[in-house]
C-alpha cells in the first residue's frame, strides 16, 4: 500500500469494528480483497481479520450455515468509481441489489456479497 501508515483514530462514537457473517470465510476474504483491497490478517486464535482500505475500521468474519436474508443496518463503503466497483462486485461473486442513478451528483448503490450481506457503495466527489 502506498499510503503512509497512520495510527487509527480513537474517539468516542467512532465505528471501529465490524463482524461480518460468511457462508465461506475463504470466499469472503477473496471477495473483499478483490473488490475493496482490504488487508487480511490472522489473529493469534486463527481468525481471519481485515482492515479496510483506510486503516480506520477493522473486523472479522464469522461462519454461518445459512445465507443472510435480512439486515436492519445499512453500512456504506466509499469507492472511487461506482460503476467499476459494481462490475468488480459481480465479477467477484456478489450481486447488485440496486444500481445508482447515473444522473445523481453522488452515486449510491446497494449490493450483496456472496453470503447475502447487504452493503451500500458511495462514490464521493464524482464529477
TrEMBL record:
VOC domain ranges (all copies): 14-124
Membrane-traversing stretches: none
A Pfam family hit: Glyoxalase_6
Name the UniProt record assigns to this protein: VOC family protein
Naturally occurring in which organism (per UniProt): Mucilaginibacter terrenus
Amino acid at each position: 500500500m502506498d499510503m503512509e501508515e497512520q495510527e487509527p483514530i480513537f474517539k468516542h462514537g467512532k465505528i471501529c469494528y465490524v463482524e461480518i457473517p460468511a457462508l465461506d470465510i475463504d470466499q469472503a476474504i477473496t471477495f473483499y480483497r478483490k473488490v475493496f483491497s482490504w488487508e487480511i490478517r490472522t489473529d493469534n486464535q486463527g481468525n481471519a481479520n481485515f482492515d479496510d482500505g483506510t486503516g480506520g475500521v477493522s473486523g472479522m468474519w464469522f461462519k454461518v450455515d445459512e445465507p443472510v436474508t435480512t439486515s436492519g443496518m445499512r453500512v456504506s463503503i466509499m469507492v472511487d468509481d461506482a460503476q467499476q466497483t459494481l462490475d468488480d462486485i459481480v465479477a467477484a461473486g456478489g450481486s447488485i441489489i440496486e444500481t445508482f442513478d447515473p444522473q445523481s451528483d453522488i452515486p449510491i448503490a446497494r449490493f450483496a456479497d456472496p453470503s447475502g450481506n447487504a452493503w451500500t457503495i458511495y462514490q464521493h466527489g464524482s464529477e
